[in-house]
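Q: Here's a chain of 274 amino acids. Please give me its 3D structure as tokens.
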Amino acid sequence: MDRLSTLLKHFNLHASTFHQGGFCGVTHFDGQQRFGHVHLLRSGRLAFKDKRGQPAELTEPSLILAVRPQTHQLLASEADNAELVCATLQFDGGANNPLTLALPDFIIKPLRELQGLDGTLNWLFEEAVGDECGRDVILNRLFELMVIQLLRHLITSRSIASGMMAGLANAQLSRALVGIHNEPQRNWSVAELADRSGMSRASFAAHFRQTVGVTPADYLTNWRISLTQKRLREGRPIALIADEVGYESPSALARTFRRKVGASPKQWLQQTTA
């Protein structure tokens, strides 16, 4: 069972490398930008401050990941000898999609703790210091691959305690989540989802809400609305979207959309693209 491919099919990521090499001074990243950031400390020391000014000292090769726009600072002196490789991250479906919202504001980890990423990280660092043809394109693809491998690591290591990622890390609940992700147009009942998970209806409903944070019905609705938002951004008409995400009519989808989002699909799209 593939727990990530459908998510990445709908909300794929695109990296753009903007720094490789030595870093000295203070760089401020504005949370008003429409993209996230990934910073890899290859060697040396680096200070990091989040949007609340909370500091962290990185003294070994480490990852800093913010999949959504987040205000933060990087600081280093000449004596720190910091070597960085950095990229921006943008996701299909916008910065606030089910995949990015399922992750913490920041993930900061020593690279030695990221099992399964060694090969990609070594290749990425080699490309960053080289001058071969196509280096920039390869770096971008390696950043994308690294983030996907990190998502896999977070699921298999059960590193996130609640939300969609915690549900995907659960052997039983993940079957229901994958079913919803793969077939949003299906009229899923709690009984069907419970059966897919190999649990009783009552046990499944309670466990799902405790782990994922919402009821199965709310999760299905939220997933459908997220897909609707992505497809509206792509220019698809609401009449076609309604059928694709399991609503009997465009008006039924529009009513649910307004209830969840607080605006009609047309109003939301105008606000988003303004």
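Q: Can you summarize the key feature?
A: DSSP finds twelve helices and nine strands in the chain.
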